[in-house]
């Protein structure tokens, strides 16, 4: 199969890689230092070693950044942790400088995303099944393979530093194995390995799964999603590549609270890099990197981290024309509150009020924090089951957002471990909950009012089929809803229209729009 040449850094996505990850990958770490070891200051070493009483003391031969990555991988694997939550406190505790933190972040995220590809390669170089290897040894091998094939680390430095790491974390015997395996892997470059995996695969689907590091069922689901959106199947590979690229850090300048231009200036002052406004949302600001939490606007919640696609689908609801009363808005599944803050800010400008509901108490708290800059009295945060709104408050609302819990197959870039955790059976279970929430929303909205049904997944079972099922069900019960043209609304709202804006049900794509694969169907209640 053709098309792998040049895929080393992932060609997908229209923009460059972000922040810490970019800093980590964009240099030849270890070059000029034969051992690949990294000298640390006394203070850094002491702090890293003191952290965690049952952690073995790190000898000076073990690189602190690689050790943090290994510990993060192990925590993700053993405890079911999420890399975006596990890693930052580890980076802080180890007191890595910006450069090393960037390297550790790129190493951890890249290794997790490409784990399937690397396992397939490692499996060619060991004499036993991978599940017979010690988990920590496998983690070390994955980290070493990513340095060799996915980062610009010199071969001798990658092998030597990873062998030291293996020796520290799993003993001398493990170090010998790691040394032998990494040396075999380093005998071929990425293109040669990918060609080999493709040749050995049973069929094209399995080849794509191994080479692009997605479970087979996810590749199938994405292929089906492209087909149901009339997109050429040749795009599948670009979509898979986009899932393996680092997403940019994007902020939403919440309208009325801070302008995008002001936020760009603030971001540039804080990061000393070039920030710019986005092209899929009029409120998006794309950061050059750095920690967005340091910006005053983010600390005050005048702005928040939010993918451009996520902003756009919320705006499809708020900016679509509605006839009659337009005062009561509802966000049925609001946690952690990115869309609620954007909708609340727009509601404040339009004299409307927003109920932001979330079923989980701690996520409802996150919603409160997210909307705290919106003028007092505009947003009411509630903690209830969204499925009850239709019965409890029939016909009360003018606009309702259902940002339904979903498989998250549209945001695999941001959640590097998610693809390995999700199961196909999750999708069917979620689809039932999604239907119930949409039915409730269509009962809570008044006749003539609007409902946006949104997922961060392009899976047809969670998107189009949920909408069509619910409309059929309403018709059977003597109620009704019609699908409006979400693509037209998005075209009007977005500075640059999304690639799929010609379709009534809007599907955004990482490889075409540079956003998460958000889905949005806009419905009007007709009876
Ligand atoms: C995709 S997230 C929403 C993201 C949010 N709109 C944002 O932009 O930040 C889905 C949310 O729905 C919540 N949820 C799950 N079941 C629910 C239910 N029955 N009623 C209300 N919320 C629910 C989940 O806890 C989760 O926070």
UniProtKB/TrEMBL annotation:
Superkingdom: Bacteria
Region (Disordered): 1-63
Extent of Low complexity compositional bias: 1-23
Residues at which S-adenosyl-L-methionine binds: 333-339, 358, 385, 403
Biased composition (Basic and acidic residues): 25-37
Residues the record marks as active site: 456 (nucleophile)
Ranges for domain SAM-dependent MTase RsmB/NOP-type: 225-526
GO molecular function: RNA binding; RNA methyltransferase activity
Alphabetical UniProt keywords: Methyltransferase, RNA-binding, S-adenosyl-L-methionine, Transferase
GO biological process, any: regulation of DNA-templated transcription
PANTHER family per record: NOP2 YEAST -RELATED NOL1/NOP2/FMU SUN DOMAIN-CONTAINING (PTHR22807), RIBOSOMAL RNA SMALL SUBUNIT METHYLTRANSFERASE B-RELATED (PTHR22807:SF53)
UniProt protein name: Putative ribosomal RNA small subunit methyltransferase B
Provenance organism: Actinomyces urogenitalis DSM 15434
């Amino acid at each position: 199969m053709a098309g792998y040449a040049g895929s080393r850094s992932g060609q997908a996505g229209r923009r460059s890689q972000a922040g810490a990850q970019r800093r980590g990958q964009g240099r030849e770490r270890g070059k000029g230092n034969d051992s690949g070891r990294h000298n640390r200051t006394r203070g850094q070493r002491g702090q890293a070693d003191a952290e965690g009483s049952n952690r073995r003391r790190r000898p000076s031969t073990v690189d602190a950044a690689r050790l943090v990555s290994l510990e993060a991988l192990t925590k993700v694997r053993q405890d079911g942790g999420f890399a975006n939550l596990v890693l930052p406190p580890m980076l802080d505790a180890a007191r890595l400088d910006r450069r090393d933190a960037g390297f550790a972040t790129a190493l951890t995220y890249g290794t997790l995303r490409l784990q399937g590809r690397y396992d397939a390669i490692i499996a060619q170089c060991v004499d036993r099944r991978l599940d017979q290897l010690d988990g920590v040894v496998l983690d070390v091998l994955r980290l070493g393979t990513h340095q060799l094939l996915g980062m610009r680390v010199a071969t001798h430095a990658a092998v030597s530093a990873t062998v030291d790491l293996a020796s520290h974390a799993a003993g001398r015997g493990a170090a010998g194995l790691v040394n032998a395996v990494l040396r075999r892997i380093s005998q071929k470059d990425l293109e040669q390995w990918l060609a080999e995996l493709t040749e050995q695969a049973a069929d094209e689907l399995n080849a794509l799964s191994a080479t692009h590091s997605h479970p087979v069922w996810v590749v199938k689901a994405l292929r089906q999603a492209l087909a149901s959106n009339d997109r050429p199947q040749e795009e599948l590979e670009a979509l898979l590549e986009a899932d393996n690229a680092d997403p940019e850090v994007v902020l939403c300048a919440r309208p009325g609270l801070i302008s995008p231009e002001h936020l760009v200036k603030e971001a540039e002052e804080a990061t000393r890099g070039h920030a710019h406004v986005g092209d899929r949302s009029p409120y998006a600001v794309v950061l050059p990197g750095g920690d967005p939490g340091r910006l005053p606007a983010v600390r005050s919640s005048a702005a928040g981290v939010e993918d451009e696609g996520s902003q756009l689908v919320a705006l499809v609801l708020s900016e679509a024309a509605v006839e009659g009363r337009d005062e009561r808005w509802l966000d049925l599944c609001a946690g952690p509150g990115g869309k609620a803050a954007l909708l609340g800010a727009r509601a404040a400008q339009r004299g409307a009020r927003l109920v932001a509901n979330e079923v989980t108490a701690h996520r409802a708290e996150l919603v409160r924090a997210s909307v705290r800059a919106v003028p007092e009295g505009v947003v009411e945060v509630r903690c209830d089951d969204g499925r009850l709104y239709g019965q409890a408050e029939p016909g009360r609302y003018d606009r309702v957002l259902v940002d339904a819990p979903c498989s998250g197959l549209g945001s695999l870039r941001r959640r590097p471990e998610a693809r390995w955790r999700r199961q196909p059976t999750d999708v069917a279970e979620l689809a039932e909950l999604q239907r119930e929430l949409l039915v409730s929303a269509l009962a809570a909205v008044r006749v003539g009012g609007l409902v946006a049904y949104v997922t961060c997944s392009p899976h047809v079972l969670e998107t189009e089929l949920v909408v069509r099922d619910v409309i059929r069900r309403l018709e059977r019960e003597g109620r009704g809803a019609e699908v409006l043209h979400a693509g037209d609304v998005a075209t009007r709202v977005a500075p640059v229209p999304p690639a799929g804006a010609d379709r009534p049900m809007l599907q955004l794509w990482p490889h075409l729009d540079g956003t998460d694969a958000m889905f949005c169907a806009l419905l009007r209640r007709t009876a």
